[in-house]
Design goal:
Two copies of one chain form a homodimer. Chain A starts with a helix and ends in a 7-residue tail after the last helix. Chain A is built from eight helices and three strands. Chain A folds into three domains: about 5-85, Winged helix-like DNA-binding domain superfamily/Winged helix DNA-binding domain (Arc Repressor Mutant, subunit A, Orthogonal Bundle); about 95-150; about 155-190, no CATH class. In chain A, helix 2 crosses helix 4 (about 55-65) and helix 5 packs antiparallel against helix 6. Chain A is extended. In chain A, about 70% of the residues lie in helices and about 5% in strands. Chain A is mainly alpha-helical. Chains A and B meet through helix 1, helix 5, helix 6, helix 7 and helix 8 of A and helix 1, helix 5, helix 6, helix 7 and helix 8 of B. Chain A binds a DNA duplex (30 and 30 nucleotides) through helix 4.
Chain lengths: ~190, ~190
DNA sequence: CATTGATTTCAGTAATTTCTGAAAACAATG
DNA sequence: CATTGTTTTCAGAAATTACTGAAATCAATG
């Protein structure tokens, strides 16, 4: 591997992190390299930069394409494929979220739905179903939120983030006012 | 493996999913089993239920404990350790988020910070740093939001989720009103 | 349609991760 | 402090995953 030290550290870190993220080392390294490079790279550039086999690069690029994480570019009078990542980090985040949901959440949700259709054959199964139902409800709430939020423009998304928990403080205030209004007729509930 | 069919399907699914989630099959299966069982299980119960070696169970339980995903219980007049998962799925979600952040985000953030302290030695490095800075900014925004939101009570969290993108629609309305107020003096910007 | 340059596939190998059984460590009890 | 029941450790075996090099495929060009 023959890269400027800073880039090398970054690439190596992404490689190590790869396993924790469910992608393999090479895929992580290639992604990091493409992300931080100022211009698109072709497969041979990557072979050289990371000292790995041509076929490994081919496989890993295919994997990255399956994740929609790289963009294919062409350079005039050059038949080779060149690759980059999107410029906009927010767009990258969106893609990542979408793909992880597809791979890591959706299959579970569909298994849960299927298992909850079945008629429990014992007390043990009845309890298990109740637990699965709790899990299903949670996941559905989360994905509903996600579906709602994913269409937002970057700027709005940033606003939402900055707002954070403040939103609920606002709602709390509203609730207090409402319950204050009720107090006259309905005394303390709990 | 000798479990009621429903439970078995669930356990097997979590096992398969495990690899995508960066945990291994056995750990996933044990977690699923504990999650869906109506009472705490001891190591030998798990050995029997999943037909795996005692030592594998020991290692995997240790892993789950490191993730704070299981609760240790004791049963009167029984020296063995029994395990369950927390009842509250929201609490489980919180733990999961916290642990994943610790393992998957924080290390990257600290590498980014370190690399951004360095003085770039070339144009290539300068560009790389600019990219890393973009990534850092994004991650910091996300973790800031997370730190803000993680303290919320379950009910408030649910409210926040249900609100979803509506929050920004509210803010948009406000913006429109504000810009309407400005229109008289400042004509179209773009 | 042969040539050249590029990419992909795939069988075999290497590396890594997971799992096991045997032994060690631990802890409660008489 | 020996006994019994329990958990942990760890070296090696098994399984899985990643990587390579050689051959096959593909696609543009004269």
């Amino acid at each position: 591997m023959n890269l400027p030290p800073l880039l090398q550290s970054f690439v190596l870190h992404f490689g190590e992190m790869g396993s924790r993220w469910g992608i393999n080392r090479t895929v992580g390294q290639i992604y990091a390299l493409l992300y931080a490079s100022s211009n698109p790279l072709c497969a041979d550039d990557i072979v050289e930069a990371l000292s790995i086999s041509r076929s490994n690069v081919s496989m890993s690029l295919r994997e990255l394409q399956a994740w929609n994480l790289v963009i294919l570019k062409h350079i005039p009078d050059d038949r080779r494929d060149y690759f980059t990542t999107p410029d906009d980090v927010w767009q990258i985040l969106r893609t990542l979220a979408e793909e992880r949901k597809k791979r890591e959440v959706d299959p579970t949700l569909s298994v849960l739905r299927e298992l909850l259709m079945q008629t429990p054959g014992s007390e043990e199964e009845r309890h298990a179903q109740a637990r699965l139902a709790e899990m299903q409800t949670l996941i559905e709430q989360l994905t509903k939120w996600y579906d709602d939020v994913k269409h937002l423009e970057t700027e709005q998304l940033a606003t939402l983030l900055n707002l954070g928990a403040k939103v609920t403080r606002l709602l709390d205030a509203k609730d207090r006012i409402v319950s204050l209004g009720r107090k006259r007729t309905e005394p303390k509930t709990s």
